[in-house]
Design brief:
Strand content of chain A: 15-25%
Largest sheet of chain A: 6 strands, mixed
Shape of chain B: elongated
Structural class of chain B: alpha+beta
Largest interface: A-B, 32 and 29 residues
Oligomer: heterodimer
Number of helices of chain A: 7
Helix content of chain A: 25-40%
Helix content of chain B: 55-70%
Radius of gyration of chain A: 17 Å
Distance between the termini of chain A: 20 Å
Order of helices and strands of chain A: EEEHEEEHEHHHEHEHEE
Strand order of the largest sheet of chain A: 7-8-9-3-10-11
Distance between the termini of chain B: 27 Å
Shape of chain A: globular
Radius of gyration of chain B: 33 Å
Number of helices of chain B: 29
Number of strands of chain B: 18
Largest sheet of chain B: 9 strands, mixed
């Protein structure tokens, strides 16, 4: 991404959260994104995914310009190449665990049976086997986040965007979830940009960036 | 109640203006429809009462005769022999007054004795600016009120043509009355005053319509009444004025009850809207309520807060609803007045009247309905454990668990509804109560039926791909939202189905009845100026002339007369029936041979509604005040008839003349044509007769068409109310669907982040909405049919005494399905647009 600017206007004051952000993430690279609350980490992730439009600047993913695509093409790109892990899990409450995981596959056009099989195998990998037919809110927070990881990786995206994935979990659970997430990302050779406050994440990252006053600063390698 | 708590509640609603607007709109529309019906019916009733009061003046009692009226010598006897002061003779008939300029209006001609009027009607008493006696006593002198005179462009000295029945005479405007008090001015709005001799000359009626008395309410008065009773010849009755107006007003009672019930349907939908809006606001505020509870606000405090919010909404919405209701009522009053004129009695509604009762009723219903609808969700939210109130699945699992209990309760309520319908009662209110209980049962069964139907429909919807599967899953998964929306929509559709089937069945019944009962070729009567008038008598010369018209093979003569039977007004028809007429009567009771034998022997043939009202069967007897005193007449048979809700008694011509000696007037005739003659050609010949005057003459087909026109006109107001109820329901469903979709905003944002395109969001919302509409339409079919059955066999029967067969084609059901799906789809447009085009990042952040 190049020269990304984004400001929020609450009617009386205008606050610039991103003031010319440049960022390159290589295939298979794990990048940790630090910064105080409200520094614009989530906004940055949303802009990369095409969920929030930047005020100016450009984003390119796998050779395609996210910022110049129309809404539909942007959605198709996201569907194919991006996986999301949120702080608050954000599973679809009306779908079962297995259906949540199979959803991205089905949306990309996989056959239902294939989708179900892939979902079952992934759920097995994240240690939720046997809970396929449960609904999200019948699971604990750690379990929900493991389902969310399975969903984010089900369609083998090029990039996983994780927004404080352990922020809402206790230390031990967060630790296990993090192991799982980084392990699978490495295994699938997927790039991951992970917004976090966690030192454990920093320890596992290939690169650590800090968002400060609207720009990215290389913190450690 | 903490001020801050209330403030937070008010701010919440102000931040969600759309939800607030929908809730206000629901109550507003519900209250408006109820108030409008009350205002319209009340204005018509009040107009009639005021005009009755103004016309009867200060009379406490009246002496009435049969169809031949009260002989003039009775008045003389009361004045001279009994020495009574406060008595006044009255001729009271309708005339069409036509000016030289061609303007014309039907007016009530009140023929009075000006010297007797002082005690009765102030505006006829002499005085400055009032009555010019010599002008009134001049020959053929009519005196209209100033407003009427102005409207018709009449000045004293102008000549006018006055028509009653087939008789037209020329009269003069002797003066114009300009009373100072409002009541008298209102009374004069449709009155024209004349001296009694003039009134008799204009109408050709040689007797009096009544003699009025003013008697004190004490022992002296009672003695006077006894003396009067003793002096009355057979066939005359002494009645209280109020009893007479009461009997007339009572005629419209069933009609008004039916209108009110339809209006209440609209209010029930309004309640649903409130329920939905309060539930939705509480769902959104669940974390806040949890927080408040955790900080020590009691459950009662939370309930109180929610109820207070509802009360505020209810008060504002009710106030607006009443204003809208008065406006709407002033529009509806014309429809109500027309139906009252078509079916019951003559009334001219000149002003819209809002009674205190209407205001209190509207306020109580609006505010009460709001608070009642808010009560359950408020309690549920307040008493949920704070942690529990955060989880949506708790609510849904609870709803699914409740669905089982609701089904059991629904089955029990259904049984109660069936029992209520089966009770052999005559109460209209009980009938409508049963209908509302039936609706309640359907609403209680809706969650379980929704689960079953969405399971059955899932394979078909899921075949459309992942979006279809998401849609199919969402309906049962959000049962706590979808079931009330489906219940409301299906009840609205069911009301539509039921009313359509009921009116259609009724119409089919009336058509069959017309086919059967209209057997002659031409039907002729004196012009009728109102549903309750039988003054118009056909000129004997005209009757002789008709018989000689080329093509006329025979004539049947009818004498229509309105009489008091007990507390009600009933129409008695004297006629000489022979074999060719028998087929026209569909006998509901007894064998034809016995019926016609008893009829010829002096029995009466009672219409179904008359027999129903009094619980009469063939062989029993009915008491009538006849010209020779009260008589018990045997019911020879009961026949199907939709002509009069009050009921009709046919009596053999010979018996009629025996019971009302001297009354050989003819009000209607049926003309039979010789073979090969065209009805319209002969009709033209009859109309061209010099003696025809202003007769009302129709061919068989013409009368049939005119009857159907009146029938359809009667149901215009039903159609309007049904439409209003549907609009309220539509607003309700829109609100429910919007709430449903808006609540899922975050979920849709997740789906969008996962890769759902805007078009797929449209598809998802469309499929969800369409599915809701379709399920509602399926559920509406059996409910609509059951309600139609109850309307035909219970409500109509009890309201009007009519029976007819239920005729149900597929059209009402297909219409309902179409309307249901279309309404649901329409309701999804805004949420779909918002979700498809909204900012996904914001949607994800929103909590």
């Amino acid at each position: 991404m190049r020269a990304i600017h984004k400001a929020y206007d609450d009617g009386t004051t205008r606050q610039e959260v991103l003031a010319g952000v440049d960022l390159d993430v290589r295939s298979g690279e794990l990048v940790a994104l630090l910064g105080p609350s409200g520094s614009g980490k989530s906004t940055l992730l949303n802009i990369i995914a095409g969920l929030d439009p930047p005020d100016s600047g450009s984003v390119e993913l796998a050779g395609q310009s996210v910022t110049s695509l129309d809404e539909r093409s942007r959605t198709l790109l996201r569907r194919r190449d991006i996986g999301f892990v949120f702080q608050f899990f954000n599973l679809v409450p009306t779908l079962t665990v297995a259906e949540n995981v199979a959803l991205p596959l089905e949306l990309t056009g996989s056959a239902r049976a294939a989708g179900r099989a892939a979902a079952a195998s992934l759920l097995h990998r994240v240690g939720i086997a046997g809970r396929d037919d449960s609904f999200p809110d019948e699971l604990s927070g750690g379990e929900q986040q493991r389902v969310a990881i399975a969903r984010a990786l089900a369609h083998r995206p090029r990039l996983v965007l994780a927004d404080e994935p352990t922020g809402n979990l206790d230390h031990a659970t967060g630790q296990r979830v993090l192991d799982l997430l980084t392990g699978l990302v490495r295994e699938f050779d997927t790039a991951m940009l992970i917004a976090t406050h966690s030192t454990e994440v920093v320890a596992r990252a290939d690169r650590v960036l800090t968002l400060r006053d609207g720009v990215l600063v290389d913190t450690a390698a | 109640m903490s001020r801050l708590l209330l403030l937070s509640g008010i701010r919440y609603h102000l931040r969600h203006p759309l939800q607030l607007a929908l809730a206000v709109l629901g109550v507003l529309l519900g209250v408006a429809v109820v108030v409008a019906v009350d205002v319209a019916a009340g204005s018509a009733r009040r107009a009639f009462l005021l005009s009755a009061e103004a016309v009867s003046g200060r009379a406490t009692h009246v002496i009435r005769g049969g169809p031949a009226g009260v002989p003039g010598d009775v008045y003389v006897r009361l004045r001279v022999d009994l020495g009574l002061d406060s008595v006044a003779p009255v001729v009271d008939r309708y005339v069409r007054v036509e000016t030289a300029g061609g303007a014309s209006r039907v007016l009530r001609l009140l023929g009075v004795d000006p010297f007797a009027e002082r005690a009765f009607r102030s505006y006829v008493a002499p005085g400055p600016g009032q009555l010019d006696f010599s002008a009134l006593l001049a020959r053929a002198s009519l005196m209209p009120g100033a407003a009427t005179a102005g409207e018709l462009g009449l000045e004293p000295g102008d000549s006018v043509r006055a028509t009653t029945g087939t008789r037209t005479v020329t009269a003069l405007i002797g003066g114009v009355l300009e009373p100072t008090d409002a009541l008298a001015r209102r009374a004069l709005a449709d009155l024209v005053i004349a001296d009694i001799a003039t009134a008799q000359e204009v109408t050709g009626f040689r007797a009096l319509d009544r003699i009025e008395l003013r008697v004190s309410d004490d022992a002296d008065g009672a003695a006077v009444l006894d003396a009067v009773r003793g002096a009355l010849p057979a066939g005359l009755e002494l009645l209280e004025t109020e009893a007479l107006t009461g009997a007339t007003v009572r005629m419209t009672r069933a009609f008004e009850t039916n209108l009110t019930a339809l209006a209440l349907v609209a209010l029930v939908f309004g309640m649903f809207l409130i329920y939905n809006s309060v539930t939705f606001s509480l769902v959104r505020r669940r974390p806040l309520i949890g927080l408040l509870r955790a900080q020590g606000v009691t459950a009662g405090g939370v309930t109180g807060l929610v109820l207070l919010e509802a009360l505020l909404i209810g008060v504002v919405a009710t106030a607006l609803g009443m204003a809208a209701g008065v406006l709407l009522g002033s529009q509806l009053v014309a429809l109500v007045a027309r139906t009252v004129n078509d079916l019951y009695f003559t009334v001219a509604v000149s002003s819209v009247h809002v009674s205190g009762v209407t205001v209190v009723k509207g306020a109580a219903l609006g505010v009460g309905a709001t608070v009642a609808a808010a009560f359950l969700p408020a309690r549920a939210a307040a008493y949920a454990a704070p942690r529990q109130s955060l989880a949506r699945s708790t609510l849904e699992r609870g709803t699914r668990r409740q669905a089982r209990w609701l089904t059991v309760a629904g089955a029990a309520v259904l049984a109660v509804a069936v029992l209520m319908l089966a009770v052999p009662s005559r109460s209209i209110v009980l009938g409508f109560a049963a209908l509302f209980v039936l609706i309640l049962a359907a609403a209680l069964l809706t969650p379980a039926l929704t689960l079953a139907l969405s399971a059955a429909l899932r394979p078909a919807v899921a075949a459309a791909g992942p979006v279809g599967r998401l849609a199919a899953r969402s309906v049962p998964a959000s049962l706590s939202r979808t079931a009330p929306a489906i219940a409301a929509l299906s009840v609205a559709l069911a009301v539509g189905i039921a009313v359509t089937i009921m009116v259609g069945s009724f119409r089919a019944g009336v058509e069959t009845w017309l086919d059967r009962s209209l057997q002659a070729d031409l039907y002729i009567s004196a012009p009728d100026f109102g549903a309750d008038r039988t003054d118009g008598v056909l000129d004997p010369a005209f009757l002789e002339d008709v018989a000689t018209v080329h093509g006329v093979a025979g004539i049947t003569r009818y004498r229509h007369a309105n009489l008091l039977a007990g507390d009600d007004i009933v129409r008695v028809i004297g006629v000489d029936l022979d074999l060719r007429h028998y087929d026209a009567f569909e006998l509901l009771d007894g064998t034809a041979a016995a019926v016609w034998r008893d009829f010829a022997a002096g029995g009466v043939l009672a219409s179904e509604s008359f027999a129903w009202r009094r619980g009469l069967e063939t062989g029993e007897s009915v008491r009538l005040a006849t010209g020779v005193g009260p008589r018990e007449l045997t019911v020879a048979g009961v026949f199907r008839d939709y002509a009069s809700e009050q009921g009709v008694l046919f009596i053999d011509g010979a018996s009629y003349r025996r019971l009302w000696p001297g009354d050989d007037a003819v009000t209607n005739i049926a003309v039979w044509l010789a073979d090969g003659h065209d009805a319209d050609v002969v009709l033209a010949r009859v109309r061209a007769l010099p003696s025809a005057g202003g007769i009302s003459a129709r061919s068989n087909r013409g009368l049939r068409e005119a009857t159907i026109v009146v029938f359809d006109r009667t149901f215009v107001i039903t159609g309007v109310l049904r439409l209003l109820a549907l609009i309220v329901a539509f607003v309700g469903v829109t609100g429910a669907l919007m709430a449903l979709h808006l609540e899922r905003q975050r979920e849709v944002a997740v789906l969008r982040a996962t890769g759902l395109t805007p078009r797929q969001v449209w598809g998802l919302v469309g499929a969800q909405s369409g599915l809701l509409g379709f399920i509602a339409a399926i559920l509406a079919a059996p409910l609509g049919l059951a309600m139609a059955w109850a309307m035909v066999h219970v409500i109509n029967r009890r309201s009007f005494g009519w029976s007819f067969d239920l005729v149900a084609g597929s059209t009402p059901f297909l219409e309902a399905a179409l309307v249901g799906v279309a309404a649901a789809l329409l309701a999804g447009v805004w949420p779909a647009w918002r979700m498809a085009s909204g900012n996904i990042g914001a949607g994800l952040r929103e909590e």
